[in-house]
Structures are given as structure tokens and as C-alpha cells.
Amino acid sequence: MHEMVKGGNVGLASLSEDVGSVMMSLSWGSPTGEGDADVSVLLLTGDGKVRSDGDFYFYNNPVAADGSVQLLGKAPTADGSEDRITFDLTAIPAGVEQIVVAASRYESARFSELQDLRLTLADGSGESLLRFSIDDPGEVSALLFGEFYRRGGDWKFRAIGQGYESGLAGVATDFGVDIDDDAGEESAPDTEVEAEVLTPEAVSVIPAQPSSPAVESVPEVGSGTEATPRPARPRTAKKKVTLPKVAKKSLAENDSWRGARLFPASALKSDHERETRATSVLLSVMAQVPEFGRRLTAAFGAPVGRMETFTEVTLPNGESPRRPDGVIRVERAGKLWTALVETKTNGNPLKPDQVQAYADIAARRGYEAVITLSNDVELEGSPLVEVKLDGRRKHKVALWHLSWAEVAHQAQLLIRHEGVGNAAHAWLLQELLHYLQHENSGCHGFQNMGRSWVPVRNAIDAETLCQGDPRAVEVVESWERLVRQVCLRLGGELGAKVLPVQRAKRGTDPASRRAALADRLCAEGRLDAELRIEGTPGVLALCADLRTGKLRTSIEIAAPDQGYPLTWAKRLVRRLAEAPADLHVETLLEGQAGGPRGTLERLRPEPADILPRNGAQITGFRLSLFRGMGNTRGTAESGFIRSVDESVDRFHASVVVHLDGRSARARRPVDA
């Protein structure tokens, strides 16, 4: 991998032959695991300015119409998160000479609070090409990571690492985007949840001033426009189709009537039928709904173009032809991008020999990727299938994995929150989502804690589980898969980022981190996880105590900066008027392990009971709900996975939504 230094540049063609489509990752971490930032991309002409508002891509405008730029969102890392962006450099308009990639923090946050800031770039096969680390970003709220620029018909990359004190608004303004700071005064949204996108009324182009496209044209730190007292944001408009919040009243005579479905699942009887139907349903919708097809394939290096999908394809393989479950082909400018698809449903595992055979066939035939789909969730550093790729071959094949939970997550985001091109596409996605969620489809995501789950629980109960037991590591991996799936499901329902927080020392590899968690499981008998939900004031903590058989969901909220403790207690109790009576409230005290505590039922008539008698300083409050956890490893009524899902849903719906937090992303100002 090519290591970049600040100000350095390199030609992409010198690093790989497959740079028509590339993926960039911007990542960072923090000691608490809570630090975050948002990425943005600007397409610039030779004079260093955007052509129009459509050349500015950020969280409210994540995808270019021609697919040349796609912001794919965040993925968790060991101590933070990373944002991924795909660039189809062959689709960048001829008038664009530079592509600037930046990141910004919100409110008073600064990049100096983050650690391990780095940019990595991979080619179309997924092979890492270069890395750029920023060691001292400074007290800035926006940061230019790097840029692509044209030279002699080829694309080069330059490492910038330069900061802005004036945030994203300063970056946007300096590159020709005019921010309308009256845009925050909007009417309330109507009965449909609709995506917000930039409009010409909100963002206009400042007349370009002569400047050089070279790196010298990048403004000095803090040279952006000063932030106004009222945060600026682009005015938005509702342009895409989403499903109504409230379903229309049914015309059925009684509840026993079932609506006709495009993709029926009730007649499926065997695993082969489920796999065949699921593959055909998914691939057909991907081909017919461009936004959905692009969303799923962009992360795999696929270009934007005409997509066709096929099922039960026969491919020659010596004396025994192979039949992958599906094939995806994307055509752009006369070139084909092809991926073989191998599908499993109903919890069936992927077969290494099958996937290996498809990887070999793809390499021989010049295909770009093999995509596997199953209920399982792949973890960083722990691939579901080990495949050997022949390094001597000039053509490289990328191996990618999708869980059915990820497919449902993307469909839900599009039809309920971000929107698609027309009503027919929204209906198709709704039918796909209904099929995936049907109990007979077999596409329910991660559903089994594995064969080590019951033995480990029994060993913990008998106090015979020893550190170093490999079964404990298997349970930790299953727990991590479950937590990631909970994040996907909840994020799709809320239309907000929900990410697992993984607290680990900087540089810790995933295997070492899981081994340490397995040792904790042996010593304490607990599985812990934390979820960061966008728009909430704290981190949702989840603890499964295998010794007591109890699940605990909790959140810690900081004490207000002003006012009196009794006022805080009364306000908190009023805010939780709709919360369950068995909610536990605990006061957190400065320098002390624990403070007064009690159930909400007891505190409602006497909020002062939660205050310390010795006048100790209150730092915050911890709110917790408890419930018994399931006994079995699967999702039966008594299953552990079901109990975790229900615990998180109940706690979020009855407690978290009533707490004050930062406004959701759709309401966040541009220079936040």
C-alpha cells in the first residue's frame, strides 16, 4: 500500500489497472468511541469552483444522478467509524477537473478531539491502494482530506490534510456554494416522510474567480467565511416518493382477508425453493429500482449503468458445470461489470467449496466479484468463508458478503425515509420488504447464537468456564453479529444512524479485542454492548448477564449546566410521564460509585427521593429497564435473540424518545 504524506500526490494508474471505479474510506476514532464527523464531496471546474448546487454532495444530497459519486454512509470500526464513498471516475463530467473530499464536525466539536484520522483508497477489486494519516488536524471543525485531479487524461490523487475553523459552511462557500442562512425557517413536514435534497433556490453558484486548480488554491486554515449567529443550512425541497406514515384504511370485510402480494411466500416448502425465490425476487427488484440496485452494488465497486440480473445460470467448469444462484451485470460505455451471486436462506451456512469454485470461475472468465448472501452477518477480521485467490492471475476477483438484514435495512431507508424516483419503485420495494419479513421466506437475518451458546451458559452457571476457552470467543462473535443486526434494524425503522460502539485501545486488531471480551465473559459472566443512536443524548447500553438470566438496557444522561437539582429531578420525572413504572432511575455522583436510586413508580410522587442527602455534586442520571432473557439460542418465543430485540425496542420507544437530544440529521445545519 502506498503511504501518502501531506502535500504528496500520486497517479492512480501507477497503483492499479482497475481504477475506473474506486472506493474511499475516511475513518477516525476517539477514546470514548463516540466521536463522529460527516463527509462531503465537491466537484470543481478548472477555476476551483462548483458548476452548480448539484456538485455539492453531503448527507442531504448523497448520490449523483449519474452515479459518479455515492456517499454510502458509515460502518463501525474498533474505536469509531468510517465513512465510505465510491467514485466512478469514468462517469465524472468532462468539465470537472478536481474532486475535493472533506469532513466536518457539528456544534462545538473539533477534529483535535479525534484520533487515528486517516484516508484509504481501494480499487475496483477492493485492493487497498494508498493510505493518508493526519496526525495533528488542529482546532478545526472541517478538514480537507484530499482531492482527485486530472493530469494528461489520467486521474491523480493529492493528500491535503488542511483544516477550516468555519466548518462545512466555510468549505462550501470558498468553493462557490452560496449558503442561504434563512433556510432553517421551514414548515413542518406533512404526513409523508420525504428525503430532503438541495434545490437551486437554496444553493446558487458564486461567480467564479480566477484561481489555479493546483493545491495552492486551497484556502488556508480558517479562511472560510465566519459562521453567522444563526446556523446556515441549504433550503430543501421534497422531491422523492416515500410511503405514508399511516397506512390507508383496508377495504377488506374482515381481518382474515389477506392482501394480494407480488411476491407470495406462503407456499414455500423447501430450502431450495426459498433460496431460488429469494434470489429471483431480490435481483429483479435491483434491476427495476435503480436507486436500490446502485445502493447494494456501489459498495462492491460496480459502476453506474444499465443493470441486468439473471438466475440459475449455468457456467462451464470442466466436466461438472456450475450453477450460481444469480448473476449481476452492469454495462457502461460498452464495458461489462459482472458479479456471481451465491444465496443461502433459513440460517443455512455458506459452503466454502462452492464459494471457492465460483471465485475460480470468476477469475477465469474475467468477472469482477463474487457476492454471497445469507442470514449471517460478517464481522471485521472474521470472514464467513475462507477463499484462496491466485495472486499470480492478472485479473483480481473481489469477494463480498451481504446479510439479508442489510438488504432489508437499505430497502427500508429508501422507501420510508430517503425516497425513490416514483411511486411504482416505492411499491416494488415495499413488496420486497414484505417478502423478506414474511416468516416463511427464510430471509430473517442472524437468528442463531451458535452451537457454543448453550454449553457456555451452562458452564457459566456451573462456574466451570475458563479463560482461553474457544467456545467463549464463538459466543462473543455471535453477540457482535446480533448487535450489528439490531443496529441495522433500528436504523432502518428510525431513518437515523445507529452504530455499535466498540471501545478498544488504538490499533487493537479484531481478534485480540474479541479474545479480551471472551476473557471478560469468563470472569464476569456478562456480554456488554453500546449503541449510538443519532439524535439521542447518550449511548444506549445493553448488558446480558448470563449468571442471573437478566437483560439490562440503560442510558446515561448528563445533568444540566444550570438550575437546581430538585428542578432537574422534577423535569426528568415529567419527561418520563409515559415511561414504564418499573424504569430504574439512578443518580450519578461526582467521584462516587453510585447514588440514590429507585423505580419511576416510587419517584413520581416524590422526585426529591433521587437527590443525594449529603449534597454531593450530581453529574447525571442512569435510566435502566430489566427483563428476563430467553433460554434458547434461536428466535423462538423463548429465544435469546428475540428477547434482545424486544428489550431494545421497548427501551427506545418508551424511554429514549422522551429524552432531549440533538435534532435529527435532516434538521442539522450545514455548518454544524
Tell me what you see in this structure:
- The structure is a single chain.
- Residues 181-238 and 662-672 have low confidence and may be disordered.
- With 672 residues, the protein is an alpha+beta fold.
- The strands form six sheets. It has a seven-stranded antiparallel sheet with strand order 22-23-24-25-28-26-27. Strands 1-10-9-3-7-6 form a six-stranded mixed sheet, with no helix packed on it. A six-stranded antiparallel sheet has the order 2-12-11-8-4-5.
- The chain has twelve helices and 28 strands.
Descriptive key words:
24% helix; alpha+beta; 28 strands; 672 residues; single chain; 7-stranded antiparallel sheet; 26% strand; 6-stranded mixed sheet
Report the β-strand fraction as a percent range: 25-35%
The side-by-side strand order for the widest beta sheet comes to 22-23-24-25-28-26-27
Ends: how far apart? 34 Å
DSSP helical segment count:
12
Number of DSSP-assigned strands = 28
Q: Can you tell me the overall shape?
A: globular
**Helical content, roughly?**
10-25%
Radius of gyration: 26 Å
Biggest sheet overview: 7 strands, antiparallel
Secondary structure category? alpha+beta
Average pLDDT confidence is 82
Contiguous runs where pLDDT drops below 50 for at least 5 residues: 181-238, 662-672
